[in-house]
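User: Could you check the structure of this?
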Amino acid sequence: MVTITEKAAEKIKEIFAESNKDSGQIKLRVFVQGGGCSGFQYGLNLDDEEPQGADQILEIHGIKILVDPISITYLKDAVIDLDDDSGGFKINNPNAKSTCGCGSSFNTE
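Assistant: Sure, the predicted structure tokens are below.
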């Protein structure tokens, strides 16, 4: 399961509040896609659509999170946190065997 630190959750709630999306319908979509310098990269999007097919729906710190079934295998036990240096988000992923310098790209082998 993916988790979110309290610090990251507060920032996500701020972003939700500042968005032009319906606050009652907004969710955080967390995903993994091919690309980046290490093979895979993380993605975080605001989503106000209905969950798709086999999306897993989690609720952590009052935030609804959507994760597709392929991404959830790469994100098992990952933690979304706020990076104090950049003010952006970082994902601490125990499944990543290597990461690149940017921190948003990883490899599982």
